[in-house]
Design goal:
Strand content of chain A: 15-25%
Largest sheet of chain B: none
Helix content of chain A: 25-40%
Largest interface: A-B, 28 and 21 residues
Largest sheet of chain A: 8 strands, mixed
Number of helices of chain A: 12
Number of strands of chain A: 12
Oligomer: heterodimer
Order of helices and strands of chain A: EEEHEEHEHHHHHEHEHEEHHEEH
């Protein structure tokens, strides 16, 4: 069995605001092994980005409180001091962000920004750091890295900037690479290249990858395991294959139905999930997806636990519906069509 | 780059000329502007005035008068209507005081403005931020003439405590210490307004920049908080401060600190301008305006060049 890199146990992240406590992440557990890709999928506001930022210690603030554990190399990243966390960041955990246009500092050269990351963790002189920046840019597929290393971010295209971000995140050879919507701001053709690059570099650098996206299509080819998040919780979790071929949560069906597909008859309109994600301050009673779920019934007023309800071990979900009923009815949603009215 | 410089310099020269023309026209249009009557004095006969008007050329068309005045300005022959003193000489005499006032106050207001802005932003929402905010607003609202007079009354000779000398400018060549000691109060009074203003602007800029994505990237790289603040946040936040400082500094250098110079009787260019306006004396007003416009336009060119250095995105490629 592969080495376990990260063990997240019942992580909760709450923010105190003027309107009340926002339960942005409310009991999330998952594990990441070396050489594997974990996909975290959900709508905006489902808590997936907050989960990722919390792993990096970027949500630490006077107004935030944490529960649960994030175990990395025997250390609990929730508990370590700010100074220790600073050592982990960049060095052990690298992160790339959604918008490469704004994630690089416009006033410094690309090479300077990569070298800065290297020199934050290693005692190397500027020339060595620069040489390594050139090498990293070559690895992420930037043509002419020797000259482009001295260019400014505005001289790079969006895809190239995201490549430079990846080079920066990998500069200290971290064990874990967290990619928060790395392709959302890019052209579709570039998206595939970036995903492929992440997959290749994962093997070259022998790291584990957490890939966050709202688009199940993005993680379909690359992820080994997927967790689907809704309202700060994991609502379904399983191997990528199981999740695509035997999805158990009506929410997952909705996500699947919203991907345009060329291998099926084209529906009139893509599926949309009616309504919007619930307030994280006053979450609905019982199943959090109940108000938007076309299949909800009385039992849904009780909170379902994340359990294994199908034959495949390790495929967990939070849904009270009968498995046979679901297998019979999910096709309508996944195939797309007019938005269903919420019950 | 060279083309940019030439274009800006030509533009700057045009602005200076346009400014003098506007001042000249205003002077002609405003009632009571007839210089012949002023030169002739209170008991002049009508013939006196006509003679003066003729010999000074006031009876010629206004564009001829303007042209002659421009010519005199550039040859340094401009002479005051009232005191008959050479304008260029007077401005030159005022420059050491004005430059001393500006450079000293500029250093103070830039340093404390940045300090106050950074402290307020770093401690945003806490007590020190609130105290600084209130003090900055007080500083911005205090009229310079009031603050200057209060400072003189309480801190200068003849006042309640005789700590500082009471105004006037001492050339640095006479006594560097006296030069410094005489300027402390004017520097402080002039800087108060700017410190408050710069502090407020910088605080806002820093708080905006802290939420930028690239600052989050810097954090994710594992940089130390101090390095993030100085290298990534401050560097970006200071760019607008450069513009403000360049233009404010030029304005004060160009005689804009009329109130401070007058309250402390520094005999600088600003005070000369105030006297000339008081006397309705066109040639010095034209001279000082040209002198001030020169500094403002040259500093705005400098600011543009410095901007290109600070922000690679606007560098001409």
């Amino acid at each position: 069995m592969a080495e376990q890199l990260l063990d997240v146990q019942d992580l909760k992240v709450h923010f105190a605001t003027e309107d009340g406590v926002v339960r942005a992440v409310d009991g999330v557990s998952f594990q990441l092994e070396r050489g594997k890709v974990l996909g975290i999928v959900g709508e905006s506001g489902s808590g997936k980005s907050v989960t990722a930022m919390t792993l990096m210690g970027l949500t630490r603030d006077v107004n935030s409180s944490f529960e649960g554990k994030v175990l990395y190399k025997g250390r609990d990243l929730v508990q370590v001091s700010d100074a220790e966390m600073q050592e982990f960041r960049g060095n052990e955990l690298g992160m790339i962000f959604q918008d490469p246009m704004t994630s690089l500092n416009p006033v410094y050269r690309i090479g300077e920004q990569i070298a800065e990351a290297i020199r934050a963790h290693e005692r190397t002189d500027k020339r060595t750091a620069r040489r390594r920046s050139v090498e990293l840019l070559r690895q992420v597929g930037i043509p002419n890295p020797e000259s482009r290393v001295d260019e400014f971010p505005h001289q790079f295209s969006g895809g190239m900037r995201q490549r430079a971000m990846i080079a920066m995140a990998l500069s200290c050879n971290p064990s874990i690479l967290i990619a928060d919507e790395p392709t959302t701001a890019l052209d579709v053709t570039i998206q595939a290249q970036i995903i492929e690059l992440i997959g290749r570099l994962k093997d070259e650098f022998d790291s584990g990858v957490i890939l966050i996206t709202h688009d199940l299509g993005v993680v379909a080819d690359i992820a080994d395991e997927i967790i689907v998040m809704y309202a700060g919780r994991v609502v379904e979790r399983g191997a990528t294959r199981d999740l695509f071929y035997d999805p158990q949560m009506p929410y997952t069906w909705g996500l699947l139905g919203s991907i345009p597909r060329l291998d099926r008859p084209r529906p009139e309109r893509l599926h949309t999930i009616a309504g919007s994600p619930p307030s994280l301050i006053n979450a609905p009673r019982g199943c959090k997806f109940r108000p938007r779920c076309p299949h909800a019934f009385e039992k849904c007023l009780e909170e379902p636990q994340l359990e294994n309800r199908v034959e495949t071990p390790g495929h967990l979900d939070r849904c009270w519906l009968d498995v046979d009923y679901k297998r019979e009815h999910r096709g309508e949603t996944i195939a797309g069509g007019a938005p269903e009215a919420a019950a | 780059m060279a083309a940019f410089f030439v274009r800006r310099t030509l533009g700057a020269a045009l602005v200076c000329i346009a400014v003098t023309f506007i001042v000249f026209v205003i002077f002609i249009v405003v009632p009571g502007g007839d210089p012949a009557q002023r030169i002739a004095g209170k008991n002049a006969t009508g013939q006196n005035i006509i003679n003066i008007r003729h010999s000074w050329g006031f009876d010629r068309p206004f564009y001829v008068q303007y042209w002659n005045m421009l010519k005199k300005m550039f040859t340094g022959e401009l002479v005051s209507y009232t005191s008959q003193q050479n304008v260029l000489q007077q401005i030159k005499q005022g420059m050491p005081a004005t430059f001393s006032l500006t450079i000293g106050a500029g250093v103070i207001w830039l340093f404390f403005g940045i300090l106050v802005g950074v402290i307020a932003a770093v401690t945003a929402g806490r007590i020190s931020d609130r105290v600084i905010t209130v003090l900055a607003l007080i500083g911005i609202s205090l009229p310079v003439f009031w603050l200057g007079i209060i400072a003189r009354y309480y801190l200068a000779e003849g006042g309640a405590t005789t700590f500082f000398p009471d105004g006037e400018y001492v050339p640095i060549s006479n006594s560097p210490f006296q030069w410094f000691w005489h300027l402390v109060l004017p520097w402080a009074v002039l800087a108060v307004l700017f410190v408050g203003f710069y502090g407020r602007v910088l605080r806002g800029n820093i708080l905006d920049t802290i939420n930028e994505d690239f600052v989050r990237t810097a954090k994710a790289k594992g940089l130390a908080p101090r390095r993030i603040l100085v290298k990534h946040v401050l560097r970006t936040s200071l760019i607008p401060i450069v513009t403000l400082f360049g233009l404010d500094f030029a304005a004060v250098l160009g005689g804009g600190a009329i109130l401070t110079e007058t309250v402390f009787d520094l005999h600088g260019v600003g005070q000369y301008a105030a006297q000339s306006i008081n006397n309705f004396d066109l040639p010095p007003i034209m001279g000082v305006t040209m002198y001030g416009a020169f500094f403002i336009v040259s500093f705005s060119v400098l600011v543009d060049l410095f901007y290109a250095y600070l922000d690679p995105r606007i560098r001409p490629t």
